[in-house]
Amino acid sequence: MDIATYVLSLIFVCTLPGTLGKLQNVTATAGEEITLKTGLTGLQGDYEVLWYLVPSEETLVHCDNGQILVEPPKRFEGNLHLDTKTGCLKIPHITESGVYQGEITDENNNKTTVTYNIIVSEAAGSSLNTAAVLKAPLAFVVAAVCILLLI
């Protein structure tokens, strides 16, 4: 996806009510472990957890009542760990910048949405998805403008 398409997609996503949740910026070094927290504890009963990349909506992990329904894409295989009691997503070796969004829906259909803008900087001797690195700061600017427009 080229930068223009990415920006237009992100603007569209930002204008949908409730899409971004609270945007949190995280800077990490390639290969570092990060945990994307939901602020929830003790999930039980009928619940669903969905983590995906914005704006592509590429599913990273989908869990329903503790059962993993969708496995991560190949480039994330073995590098994503979902805590089924909190909905938190641990990435032991982060390599890809981008906007990561989590949605947790409980048995009463209450939805909690968390959104992280992850900016990964290159560690010595590592290789990054440079297109994703360029998009992440741009995503933050567009998301910030969208949030201001919605207020």
Query: What is the mean predicted local confidence, pLDDT?
Result: 79
Give the oligomeric state.
single chain
Uncertain runs are: 15-19, 144-151
Major β-sheet, in short?
A: 6 strands, mixed
Strand order of the largest sheet: 1-9-8-3-4-5
Count the E strands: 9
Calculate the terminal CA-CA distance, rounded to whole Å. Answer: 29 Å
Number of helices: 2
| Strand residue content | 35-45%
Can you tell me the overall shape?
globular
Percentage of residues assigned to helices: 10-25%
Order of helices and strands: HEEEEEEEEEH
Describe, in plain words, how this protein is organized in 3D:
The C terminus is likely disordered. Helix 1 runs parallel beside helix 2. This protein has 2 helices and 9 strands, in the order H-E-E-E-E-E-E-E-E-E-H. Helices cover 23% and strands 35% of the residues. The chain is of the alpha+beta class and 151 residues long.
Give a quick precis of the structure.
With 151 residues, this protein is α+β, with helices and mostly antiparallel strands.
Helix and strand arrangement:
Elements: H1 3-15, E1 22-29, E2 34-36, E3 48-54, E4 58-64, E5 67-70, E6 81-82, E7 89-91, E8 98-105, E9 111-121, H2 130-150
Parallel strand pairs: 1-9
Antiparallel strand pairs: 2-7, 3-4, 3-8, 4-5, 6-7, 8-9
Helix pairs in contact: 1-2
